[in-house]
Amino acid sequence: MSSAGTYLKRPSGYDAELQSVFRPIFERIAEGNVARERDRVFPHEQVRWLCDAGFGTVRIPAEQGGFGASLEQTFLLLAELGEADANVAHIWRNHLAFVEDRLNAPVSEDNAAWIKRFLAGEFVGGGWTEANNLTLANLATTVTEEGDHWLVSGAKYYATGSLYADWLDVLGRGADGELWTAWCAPTIRASRWSTTGEGSASARQPAVRHATRRRARNRATSFPPPSGLAIRRTSIRSPCWRS
Predict the structure, then answer these.
(1) 15-122 and 125-216+225-233: same fold?
(2) Which intervals hold domain Acyl-CoA dehydrogenase/oxidase N-terminal (predicted)?
(3) Maximum average pLDDT range among 20-29, 33-42, 197-206
């Protein structure tokens, strides 16, 4: 499958290559699964093993530097990773969705920069969903310009993968009332806190330093379930400097 004007190409990944690269890592991850779950140890090291091995690039075409895996091959890898540690597999949900968005986006300097970040092992976490039954119509998080920087202010729930992220994909509302996405680089990493629900898969209270923004009108169909179901909170309030 390919699409003119985007980064999508016909899949060219080989099962044998994918298994030889990632199966040994899955086996290492499985070895400590029970102990991590029992002692509530967040799998920072395990996520980094996968980043360094290129797990975040499995869908990027081989000619771009990725593995060129098909969606079916990607889902099979995720299923095998889930057998090793369900939390670690879930952590990758937002990153892989973000990569897929970029692969389906028009070729541009901005999207090429994201492809390079993925190939360098950078990881993306989500910051979309809000609590109290908030929807896109009454989203409370704001993205506002203050002098030479942007300020993202709000609270996010179900922020899967954000604890491990190099970038946060944060949805908010601009001063003009329209939806924006702020791509923020967190500067504070928490080690643990008291929460329920998603185990070690999710959130933290991050500060954000860099952000670019774009209109998000076309993102409405890709958001998580209604935030009234949320059980974990990530608060964000810090400056986002232009990168």
Answers:
(1) no
(2) 29-103
(3) 20-29
Mapped onto helix, strand or coil, the DSSP state of residue 166 is coil
User: Averaged over 179-199, what is the pLDDT?
Assistant: 60
Give the containing element (helix H, strand E) for 212: strand 208-215
Two structure tokens written together for 105? 């986006």
What's the pLDDT at 242?
33
As a whole number of angstroms, the distance between CA 47 and CA 163 comes to 11
Q: Which CATH superfamily is domain 125-216+225-233 in?
A: Butyryl-CoA Dehydrogenase, subunit A, domain 2 (2.40.110.10)
The tens digit of pLDDT for each residue in 62-103 reads 999 999 999 999 999 999 999 999 999 999 999 999 999 999
Choose which CATH entry (1.20.120.790, 3.20.20.450, 2.60.120.1520, 1.10.540.10) describes domain 15-122: 1.10.540.10
CA distance 139 to 206: 19
Q: Which residues, listed in sequence order, are joined to residue 156 by a DSSP beta bridge?
A: 234
Cβ neighbours of residue 56 under 8 Å, at least 6 residues apart? 50, 92, 95, 96, 99, 118, 121, 122, 123
Q: Look at the block and give the residue holding tokens 């949320």.
A: 230
By the 8 A CB rule, do 136 and 233 touch?
no
Token pair of 83 as six digits: 């057998």
Better pLDDT: 52 or 8:
52
Distance of alpha carbon 91 from alpha carbon 202, whole angstroms: 7
Alpha-carbon distance of 136 to 155, in angstroms, equals 14
CB neighbour list of residue 109: distance below 8 Å, 6 or more residues apart: none
